Amino acid sequence: MAYQTIKPTTNKMVNTCPNHTDKQIEDALTAAHSLYKSEWFKGSIKPRLKVLHRLADIIESPVEDLAKIITLEMGKLIGESRQAPEEIDSGNGR
Description:
The chain is mostly helical. It is built from five helices and two strands; from the N terminus they run ββααααα.
């Protein structure tokens, strides 16, 4: 059965995500393990930080769209949802 996203305030389904096959999961784990063993992981943290900061920029750009999704899927207040990217960037979202 596919995964379903349920809106907490109405208990209605808002999205369905298909299951992954065993092969898809194994491929993802193999790729992650390869990266873990690579020079990328063993080397300087600076190139990884550059990628993570770029990812943060991408996440922060559509804040309103992301806030709506967070509110819809998690039931957070919209104001709290708008702050979520900042919390992740500052490390407070854990």
